[in-house]
Amino acid sequence: MAGLEAARVAALRGHQTILLEAGTAVGGQVLAVARAPKREDYASIVTWLAGQAKKAGVEIRLNTPASGADVLALEPEAVVLATGATQRLPDIPGVKLPHVASTVDVLLGRTAPGRRVVIVDEEGYFAAPTTADFLAERGAQVTIVCRYFMVGEDIDEGTRSDLYARLFARGVIPVPMTRAVEILPQGVRTRHTFSNAEALVEADSVVLAFGGRAHDPLSRQLEGTVADLKVIGDAYSPRRVHDAILDGTRVARAL
Q1: Is the pTM for the entire model greater than 0.70?
Q2: Triad 206, 209, 211: Cα angle to 5°
Q3: CA geometry: angle at 35 spanning 250 and 82, to 5°?
Q4: Strand partners, 117
Q5: CB 131 within 8 A of CB 207
Q6: E strand or H helix at 18, and its extent?
Q7: Are 133 and 170 in contact, with CB atoms under 8 Å apart?
Q8: Distance between first and last Cα of the chain
Q9: Minimal CA–CA distance to 145: which of 116, 171, 177, 114?
């Protein structure tokens, strides 16, 4: 989103702008967010920005992963890196077992979780509960293990109430104040935050909601080779959608 907004604003300000997109579509992880129930409107953000960027004259090249050499071959006067984030993995045993996936993997259909699913939430925002909503709507039995006082603690109260109503109606079980200490083939071993009591939550699949980690493979390759180099959006620091759009606007206005 940050790169798309930067390209749109840069083109509006008269710059010849090329957007290199590694994937098959622009929008990044917002496309995953838009797959969850009641969050479909997020897709309209991508549609509008992409349409406006093209109208402003941005050349969008899809399926174009770029190395530093690829970027320099275009002879740019300025480069804005918006290479996004990768999913952060927790440092707990069993995290790389084959039945473990991320919320993004689930929402984009990269994996098909089993009937019983445990979502381990360390983010405290929308990823875990909306993915639970997505899976429960499709018939899965979902448990959310969360170390916070409540699932979705950082979601505003009104939105959280509506989300909770759907989750409880679909049988989703929240287990707050609890940490995952080990992922096993048969489920997740948990420990209560305050009592230290341990339990095994059985599961066919485990889904992780641990937020993102900045993915910036190009800035070191390009440092000192272009007059103006910026890293924005999740590539700088994973945050919310509005932060990414603000990053894109600011950097483009400073070109």
Answers
A1: yes
A2: 150
A3: 25
A4: 142, 205
A5: yes
A6: strand 18-20
A7: yes
A8: 18
A9: 177
**CA angle centred on 176, ends 171 and 179, rounded to 5°:** 120
Q: Which residue has the tokens 């899965």?
A: 140
- Report d(CA 161, CA 239) in Å as an integer: 23
Question: Could you give all domains of the chain from N- to C-terminal order, each with its CATH number?
Answer: 2-86+213-253 (3.40.50.720), 89-210 (3.50.50.60)
How does DSSP assign 99-162, residue by residue? TEEEHHHHHTTS----SEEEEEESS-SSHHHHHHHHHHHTT-EEEEEESSSSTTTTS-HHHHHH
Give the CB-side neighbour count of residue 200, counting CA atoms within 13 A. 8
Residues in the chain predicted with pLDDT less than 70, given as ranges, are none
| Cβ-contact 193, 106 below 8 angstroms | no
pLDDT of residue 28: 86
